[in-house]
Description:
Layout: E1 3-5, E2 11-13, E3 20-22, E4 25-27, H1 30-39, E5 44-47, H2 51-56, E6 62-64, H3 72-76, E7 86-90, H4 94-105, E8 111-116
Parallel strand pairs: 4-8, 5-6, 5-7, 7-8
Antiparallel strand pairs: 1-2, 3-4
Amino acid sequence: xxxxxxxxxxxxxxxxxxxxxxxxxxxxxxxxxxxxxxxxxxxxxxxxxxxxxxxxxxxxxxxxxxxxxxxxxxxxxxxxxxxxxxxxxxxxxxxxxxxxxxxxxxxxxxxxxxxxxxxxxxxxx
Length: 125
């Protein structure tokens, strides 16, 4: 799937990819997330696992905010515009869905859930 950048850093599928829009966020594959990361160095990569999980292995340049800690206060500390491109992952995809839904409720509009790190075929630290 190719992505094209539109106004406000939003990405739209430019081909017949499998992007699923759900309650204010999109579910995409790890491959599509990697494409967005490569094309947009300002994209926020959000790891919503625990600190222990993050310390064992995480995607380079990701920011840790455990899912249970996501709130208006913790997210406002990041000082992100509401149209920031946010890529979210966890271990298997359950917590990332919950986190994506919370961020959508907080007014973020450019959220991409790419599931779990267990399906991430690229570099980790």
